[in-house]
Design brief:
- This is Methyltransferase type 11.
- InterPro entries: Methyltransf_11, SAM-dependent_MTases_sf, Thiol_S-MT.
- The chain is of the alpha/beta class.
- The protein has 7 helices and 7 strands, in the order αααββαββαβααββ.
- It has one domain (6-205): Vaccinia Virus protein VP39 (Rossmann fold, 3-Layer(aba) Sandwich), CATH 3.40.50.150.
- Strand 4, helix 5 (124-134) and strand 5 form a beta-alpha-beta unit.
- The radius of gyration is 16 Å and the shape is globular.
- The structure holds S-adenosylmethionine.
- S-adenosylmethionine is lined by residues 9, 13, 24, 51-53, 56-57, 70-73, 76, 98-100, 115-117, 120-121, 170.
């Protein structure tokens, strides 16, 4: 698997941040809606969104939850902060933080969401382990991402383009089940979403 490092990520998302919404808002919207619904947020729940980016999921959350959004990229977070101000959201806290070293106590959040993030971090297993640690027992961990295809032809193409894609800030050759297994997460629900059903939406119950 091709490695992705912190320098590549900070550089890629600094460049992408001004055009991120234009490129990715519409095309990934169906998956976002399904992912937030799958979180099944109840009034006053505390939710963590890991790798919140420019905050495209913000309008999808119920207004009566408490949301904490973290990301490594300052330029991406500035866009999320703008949305929080524009939407007049008083229930949202945005923090610059590395998802592989979450600065929260164990079992702090009711639910955790990561959309289009797990293939964009240098250490996906460590990030999932951290998500599991900060989520309460029986909380929902929802992951939405593209993973390497099980179709051998498509999978080989994804391996071939992986070196280029890491320069753009994401991996194309990350496999779903091995990464979940390594983090000791068991999928409770698995769906296919977005264009050509090419993205996987996974809900794990934090056991
Ligand atoms: C493809 S973007 C997805 C953004 C957002 N979740 C969305 O749905 O549009 C990936 C995000 O992950 C963030 N990221 C990458 N590695 C990270 C890490 N170790 N900790 C926190 N955020 C990270 C990037 O800065 C970027 O904002």
């Amino acid at each position: 698997m091709v490695a992705l490092d912190y320098k590549q990520i900070t550089r890629a998302y600094a460049i992408l941040s001004p055009m991120y919404d234009l490129l990715f808002e519409r095309v990934f919207h169906p998956g976002r809606v399904a992912a937030v619904q799958l979180l099944d947020v109840k009034p006053n729940d505390i939710v963590l969104e890991v790798g919140i980016g420019t905050g495209l999921n913000l309008p999808l959350y119920p207004q009566d939850c408490h949301l904490v959004g973290i990301d490594l990229s300052r330029p991406m977070l500035s866009k999320a902060e703008e949305k929080v101000r524009d939407y007049g959201m008083t229930n949202v806290t945005i923090k610059e933080m590395d998802a592989s070293k979450l600065e929260f106590p164990d079992a702090h959040f009711d639910h955790v969401l990561a959309t289009y993030v797990i293939s964009a971090v240098p250490e996906p297993v460590q990030v999932l382990q951290e998500i599991k640690r900060v989520c309460k027992k029986k909380g929902h961990i929802v992951i939405l991402n593209h993973f390497k295809s099980e179709n051998p032809v498509v999978g080989t193409m994804e391996e071939l383009i992986a070196p280029l894609c890491t320069r753009l800030g994401f991996k194309t050759d990350l496999r779903l089940m091995p990464v979940l297994k390594a983090a000791q997460l068991i999928p409770e629900q698995l769906h296919r979403v977005n264009m050509l059903n090419g993205w996987r939406l996974v809900r794990c119950l934090n056991e």
